[in-house]
Amino acid sequence: MFQTIRIRLTAMLVLLYLILYLVSSTVIYALTSQLSIGNLDAILKETADPLAAQISATLDHGYFPEQFVSLTKTAAMYPKVTALVLRDATGGILASTNPKITKGFSFVARGSVSYTSQFNSITDSYFRVYTIRLTTLYHQTSGYLQIALDMNSIQAALSALRRVLFLVGAAGLFLASVSGFIMSRIFLRPAVRSFDQQQRFVADASHELRTPIATLQLHLEMIKARQDEPVSHRRPWIDGMEREVERLTRLTDHLLLLARADAKRVTAQPMKLNVLELVDEVWNASLLAASAKGLSLEMKPTLDEIYDAHLDGDDVAKAMSAYQIQADPERLEQVLTILLDNAIKYTACGSVRISIERERHGMIIAVSDTGIGIRKEQQPFVFDRFFRADQARSGSASGAGLGLSIAHEIVREHGGRLTMKSEHGVGTTFYVILPLTQRVKNRRKESLRQVIELNQRGRSL
Q1: Contacts of 320 (CB under 8 A, 6+ apart)
Q2: Which fold has domain 267-459?
Q3: CATH class of the domain defined by 2-158
Q4: 300 φ, ψ to 5°?
Q5: Which end of the chain, N or C, is less packed with Cβ atoms under 10 Å?
Q6: What residues form DSSP beta bridges with 95?
Q7: Is the peptide bond before 301 cis (omega within 30 degrees of 0)?
Q8: Could you report the per-residue pLDDT of 359-405, keeping only the tens digit for each?
């Protein structure tokens, strides 16, 4: 599909070049020709007008013009002129300075004056001929005077110009074809990448949806096969169906969120909130899952530590105000839940820790674990959709590989940055770096610049 589009784009670029070049080269050639021949015409007119006046006066007195009595003298008087021809009223030649040349001149009466470019087959040359009609005092035609200039040099120059324009046009056409093919590839690269991502996204989403649907179908068949049994006997399959429905709901919610993110329709609804209180809620909600796996879930600092360190009410309020930011509480809670769930899910033993640190321009929330970590070569892809690390990490827990992608989109929508540091076999730490205040979208770059310093510092934590 894209190959056809690429060929069409190249053809359009080549056609556009061809049209522009044809127009420009035609204009260049026409102007050059007009200027060159115009100079000849000026010389012809400058010579012919006074000469024609003298000849007309001579003819009016019944004498043959003395300019043509001595042709050698006449030719010497007009060195720029190639030939002079005097014709009678019918166009017959009365006299000429160069009979060999003038014999090949054509003659057609065209008003009082005319300019013609003629090819003389006898001398194999080009001439510019100026013809002026001679009249009597009673405005009757008494004859014609023709003056000719050699224009071989001009014709040679114009011929050379045509060759140059043709060669330049051919070379330009070749370069336009090659460059058009290359440029179309560059222009289409984002579209190809987007199309490939879309295809991969659809394929991965279909695969992820197929598994719970197949499980639901199996459970339905098991329930249908045991319709005569008590409900208690069919309870395991009913519970399994509930789990798969929840999984499907969560998966479709994730897919919808990512689709809206692609369409630039995911916007945070920032409000003033206390990060410490929000983290405490998520931490408490995750305690049961951590204890079920025998993991230690730590939070630093805790609300109790803040209250114990600041017994006075004003001091507590001042200490808590240090953790105030503007963010969407629902979205930020979703990010923290994803990070904590992943940390607990992929940690077999040890501890999971979440810490909050206030910096000058933002807040750093770090979620670290002592799990199996992520291999170095896989780390650049952790925020890609449907990406799951090696079998040791993904095989022990189910998931569609969308959580970190969603967290990354949410944090980015807040004008922040989600980064990570991991060592395989040691553990992983994710850093949520958020600005203290939300800026309007067209000033997000300024927010990102403000947290670059935090990002670099977060990597070294």
Answers
A1: 274, 276, 277, 306
A2: Heat Shock Protein 90 (3.30.565)
A3: alpha beta
A4: -140, 120
A5: N
A6: 86
A7: yes
A8: 877 899 999 999 888 888 888 888 887 676 654 444 445 556 778 88
